[in-house]
Amino acid sequence: MTVGKSVSRWLGLTLLVTALVLGCEGDEGPMGPRGFDGTQGDPGQNRTADPIADQVFGILINNSTAVDFNGAMMVQLTSDASATPSASRVVARDLEKAPVIDGIDGGTAEWGDAVASNITLSTIAGADNGVSSVSMRVGYNFENVYVQLKWTETATAPFVIKADTTKNQWRASSATSWSQSGGEDRVILAFEINDITGWNSEGLGAIFDGATFATPAEGEIADLWEWGSTVNYYFELAQDRVVRDAGNGGLADDVGGPYVWLNDRFNSRPRYMRANSPITGSDYPLYDFEYTSFVRTLAWRAGATIPGYVYLEPSRSAANVLAVGKFSNGTWTVELQRKRRTGQADDAIL
Q1: How do beta strands 309-311 and 260-262 pair?
Q2: H or E segment and range at residue 16
Q3: What are the percentages of helix, strand and coil residues in the chain, rounded to 5?
Q4: What does DSSP assign to residue 32?
Q5: CA-CA to 204 of 20 to 30 Å: which in 171, 222, 234, 283?
């Protein structure tokens, strides 16, 4: 046998073995029969949100002025379904669906069985402003806590029944003479973030002396939500604030504030105005993207008005509390929403 024939046979054998090893892709066979059904699993359960822990909080309300407070220093908040709402207790309920935060009371259609408590208020500082009680509901789900507050103003001199939405408004009596006037309706809620000396016995009284807010000792912190009918009315966020001891500033905005700049007096006139404002002035609100320095050379007409604040857009922790307030027939309805856990040290866990 010659070498050439041997190599040829070897190559042929190699190709045959390779073809047998690699093979060819065949047609897919028919589907096999369906297997037996598996064992049925255990029935599912509806998820339930963790209840809000029992705690004490405080409420303050004023009508037009910043110094005349009616309030309730100690209100019990519980999620115990067997508890009865009362003049000093609010029973929070797990809500199947979130209420619409619009300043309009949707009743049980929105709030389910979160029954309103009629909280009794007393004079805390200054004169009795005529607000003797506030109706309050609290609801919650996995993510958020919801609060509704309703109070009715009464005509008790010097307090009048009015939605005060133009606090510190500037008004011209002539082209060169300007003055500022106007108050604000407010509601304040305060919660304990960590243990505060005296909170369990005095509630809000442990951090409020009738004029200023401060916790008794260093390291003690309170969470304070403040809604005002001028400062917060126009951009639907409450002021989310924090109270520390006096040595660490007392009351301050949460990180991400402020909410407004005061349009303060400068050379006997407003500091700011709306850009391209007519000589008759402008109404509230005045946002930070539309203001400019006051133009004193304009021929301002008597009666011209300029807002007393420049409105800013808060961020981060300062923007946590959604709030909408509406005034109708002498009654304010203010509704609030906030995440139960914001992950921020200046917010209470609810």
Answers
A1: antiparallel
A2: helix 3-22
A3: 10, 35, 55
A4: P
A5: 234
Q: Can you point out the beta strands (E) in 26-132?
A: 55-62, 69-78, 89-91, 93-94, 117-120, 122-125
As a whole number, the mean pLDDT across the chain is 91
Query: What DSSP element (H or E) covers 7?
Result: helix 3-22
Between 29 and 98, the more confident residue is: 98
In order of 72, 120, 192, 350, the CA distances from 86 in angstroms are 13, 9, 21, 20
Report, in angstroms and rounded to the nearest whole number, the Rg of the chain calculated over CA atoms: 33
**Burial class of residue 325 in the structure, from the number of CB atoms within 10 Å of its CB (0-12 exposed, 13-18 middle, 19+ buried):** buried
CA nearest to 299, candidates 269, 275, 279, 274: 279
Task: Confirm if 273 and 261 have CB atoms less than 8 A apart.
Answer: no
What SS3 class is residue 3?
A: helix
C-alpha to C-alpha distance for 190 and 232, rounded to whole angstroms: 17
DSSP 61-84: EESS-SS-EEEEEEEEEE--TTS-
Can you tell me which residue has the tokens 């916790």? 215
Extract the tokens encoding 342. 């914001």
Burial of 322 (0-12, 13-18, 19+ CB in 10 A): middle
- What's the average model confidence in pLDDT over 248-265? 95
162 burial level (CB within 10 Å; 0-12, 13-18, 19+): middle
**Residue 316 and residue 254 in contact, taking contact as beta carbons nearer than 8 Å:** yes
Residue located via tokens 């690699």? 22
Q: What is the pLDDT of residues 14-66, one digit of tens each?
A: 444 344 444 445 666 777 777 777 677 666 555 678 999 999 999 999 999 99
**Residues present in the chain in total:** 350
Cα 242 to Cα 52, 152, 201, 234, 303, distances in angstroms: 20, 28, 21, 22, 39
